[in-house]
Amino acid sequence: MVTADRPLELAVTSGEPAGVGPELTIQALAQLDTQNELTDVRCHVLGDADLLAQRAGAVGLQAEWADMLAGGRVVMTHHALAVPAAPGHLDARNGPYVLALLDDAIDGALHGRYDALVTAPLQKSTINDAGVPFTGHTEYLAQRTGVAKVVMMLAGGGLRVALATTHLPLARVPAALERGDLLATLRIIDADLGRYFSKRRPRILVTGLNPHAGEHGYLGREEIDVIAPALADARAEGIDAMGPYPADTLFQPHYLADADCVLAMYHDQGLPVLKYASFGRGVNITLGLPIIRTSVDHGTALDLAGSGRADCGSLIEALRTANQMARTARRIEPAA
């Protein structure tokens, strides 16, 4: 629990060791430190200490990294790699290491050691190749925290876009849309935008699934049979959810001017628009968890690892967003 008499404690998992996560972590923290944004925040970096030191040298921030550690603004929480990691070269033997970072951060957040969790990108294939079934951060966080339902929301470029379904093949999306599940999604968005973003009774605009939102049933009935009834259920509970709107016309300024969030039906319906508006500065936020979690809007960029050419802007925004969400929750939650 955040209290006024101590700094915020943010856990930062450094992600896939062969990717850009370790160096982006160092670069993002160094920029925030230069801008005096770590004065009342303590960042706990979870990863292999030697790897982080090596990447700090590779990107020319060895002195800055050492200074942040010595000053206590950054705390290194060491987890040893299974085998040395070379930039750009995946090794399945380090898959359990990546999960150990995440597990440590989740447990720390659940037990109050960390006020929020920020994750650098990981490589799903490395974890699966290590023999651990893994579909993504979002699903793993839900499983580890014992939550039946979470919502992926990306923010950036003046937009917030949440998803009704996440990492599903497109052919499975229609069957995955259920009235009760959509209502549960809307409840989570409504509650967490209030809790973490001070949006009391947020206005949520909801897309249809089919072209032209089904064209009154001629292009599909999901809007009539599933989406519209779920929206009626939500409005009956006091949730300001409107739609379903055609996705090809919804993302226009005059529609979005009064919106706090758009709920899209599937991954590639809503996220291309948001990433076009904000790529490199977007933030992935998991709603519905008992902890705060933010992440970057990109992957491991193996081709850039160790080069210093990767852009740390998204991780900077993820850190800032986690910081702000924790502070908002502190203002809203009653004192213990």
Automatic annotation (TrEMBL):
Q: In which pathway does it act?
A: Cofactor biosynthesis; pyridoxine 5'-phosphate biosynthesis; pyridoxine 5'-phosphate from D-erythrose 4-phosphate: step 4/5
Q: Name one GO biological process term.
A: pyridoxine biosynthetic process
> Which InterPro entries is this protein grouped with?
PdxA, PdxA_fam
Name its co-factor(s). Zn(2+); Mg(2+); Co(2+)
Please provide, in alphabetical order, the Gene Ontology terms of the cellular component aspect for this entry: cytoplasm
Q: What are its E.C. numbers?
A: 1.1.1.262
Query: Family per UniProt?
Result: Belongs to the PdxA family.
Miscellaneous note, as given in the UniProt record, is:
The active site is located at the dimer interface.
UniProt-recorded name of the protein: 4-hydroxythreonine-4-phosphate dehydrogenase
- Organism expressing this protein natively: Pandoraea thiooxydans
The taxonomic lineage of its organism, from the top, reads: Bacteria, Pseudomonadati, Pseudomonadota, Betaproteobacteria, Burkholderiales
Q: Name the gene for this chain.
A: pdxA
